[in-house]
Amino acid sequence: MHRKTGARPASSSARERNPPGHKGRPETVDQKTRAALKKDKFVTTTTHGVEWARENRQSLIVNGGILLAVILIAIISVVVYNARSEAASVAFGAAMQAYQTPLAQSAEPVPPGMATYSTAAERAKAANALFLAVADKYGMTPDGRTARYFAGLTYIEAGQSQQAEATLKKVASGWNGNLAALAKFALAQLYRNTGRDPQAIDLYNQLSSRPTTTVPYGLAQLQLADLYQSEGNADAARKIYASLKDKDAKGAAGITAAEKLNTTSNPALPQQ
User: Quick check: 244 pLDDT over 50?
Assistant: First the structure.
């Protein structure tokens, strides 16, 4: 007799791979085990962090102290700079007020209590001392740098050419392009007034090659043309005027150049 054959019982390995309730899914670590592993990992990481902090406690304190000191220094520096800038602004305003004081013989009324000056040179000398004081005390502030430029101008008005040249050269070498251009422009005029036309021409060319807001290309070129005209070099002057007329026909420099061209091309007839 043959035995009745039935379904073959699952092997123990199969049962282990597919326990009841998983219906063919591979065995996974249960949630409690995973939570325990995550907890162990967190504890380990935290423990290492605490140990590292304990070992490097002195270094952390030192670094934290340095950072705090840097922040405090930065805050104090800003406060001090703002205070000095405000003081410089007040002092510069006082110097400008002296510089703009009407002369005693002018028809313009002078406010009560304001000092008066009989000549422009006398007024310039008084203002110059005030501008120099602002520049020397607050030289790192914008008003302090501007004050040095005005010190150069007042030196010129006071007839002190050497001091004016030295002061304006210092401003001209500064990092502020607009202020440096103004100083070069003033220097060029000083050179013209003292018979040093080649140096003035060099400065006008520098200003033309690097125009700024304070001294644009057209202004530098007009001054250069005027210098050539004063030297009797009419051809060089006309060449500059013609170029400006073409490049800036509707601008102030172009219009002025066109007027200059008409004047030089059609000189006034001598009176009988």
Answer: yes
